[in-house]
Amino acid sequence: MTGKATLIMVIGFSFIFIVVGYLWGNVATRSAENHISYYKNTIARNIAVSGANLALNQVIRDSNWVSDISDRPFENGEMTVTITPLGPPIRILESVGTFMGAEQKVRIKLQRGTRIFAEYAWFIPSVSTGSLNRPWITGDTVFGAFHTNQFLLVDGNPVFTGHVSTLKGLKDVSKTGPSNPQFLGGYEGGIDVSWNSEMSFPEYAADADAGVALGGTCKFQNTNVWLTFNDNGTVTYRTYNKTGDDSSKFSAPVTRSLSEMAPTGVIYAKGGNLFISGTLDGSVTIISEGSSGGGNGNVTLVGDLVYKVDPMISNGNGGYMPNPACDDLMGVIATNNIIIATSQLSGGKANNVDNPDIHIDAGLFAVKGGMQVQDLGTAPANKPLGSIYLQGSMTAGKEEIVAQFNGTTITAGYNRHVIFDSRFSVAPPSWYTYTYYYSVISWLE
Prior knowledge:
This protein is of the alpha/beta class. The chain has four helices and 35 strands. It has a 15-stranded mixed beta sheet that branches. Strands 20-19-18-22-24-28-30 form a seven-stranded mixed beta sheet. Strand 33 and strand 34 form a beta hairpin. The mean pLDDT is 87.
């Protein structure tokens, strides 16, 4: 009996060990398989996330971007990205990563918004040749948001009270010692704000045609136009269909109320240049459209251009706030440049040279060029001319030069003193140029 019991016990334990060994073997095998599966799926997921980030970068740069990422090799696997509309303004971006037979997906929902460039006190996506001549220097002040898609060049101690962002960073170009720019609203580098990927230029000509149909005289073709805004709500205009800024050669003046001249709120000139100054009582957007090589599409400031009521007042804390008494609003849009006149013929010498400073109340937009001073460095614009006092905003395709200097001392031209008209954040000038952009509202892996 003892021998039989022992045999049964041996057989029983052997069976148990065989079963346990089999089970442990399965566990080890499954553990290895799970480890391999986890590794493959992790790599596939990382590829999918990388594809999503690559695609998002493209969408941010160009809101009309259509994916060209298909079976693209990446980290020994492949990525494929599709982006499709899902009823405007929603788009769905899907990135698929594959690795050794494993597949992972990232699905992102994007929502379209619009960016009005008037929301910045100063916005510059690029610079002209010779950019080191265009730094912000001691005496320059910006109250409001500032952005450039290039370097922010500084020489001395410019002051920025609003948030400052750049794509490429800061560059100190001082030759006399370290600069110390004051970023009172914070600074952030590596920020790329979309420019010209889907710029929307409203149908200015159609808006002007509509104004003409209502009895307006707000559309001009192939002629220069001299506009003087009067503080009683009227506009005096003259025309000259040849090249030049000699004010004496323009036609006899015609004065109309702003509402009669521009009943749709637009004054539009194509194929010529606008020469503007005065005191605005009302709301209007003026546009000068022309080719960059044709010497037109420019707006020249022959003197101060201000509102009847000051748009910004002190907030008591060293900053500014909107003046509730002001309902005047102006947008100034030029295909090419916005120029501060200094010539004797245009009256720029008397207004902008002999008298210090120039005052501008408006949202300024120079699409292909920037703000510049006429004949800077040549008499009579070969001396310090005071400051540009801008209450509004400045957006320009390029940072142009408004001053020449030795170190931080201006030898010719203007300092810049910019106060953002914060009304533009919620109610920019009518027909103001904008661009589309997309933001992420959900991310699913």
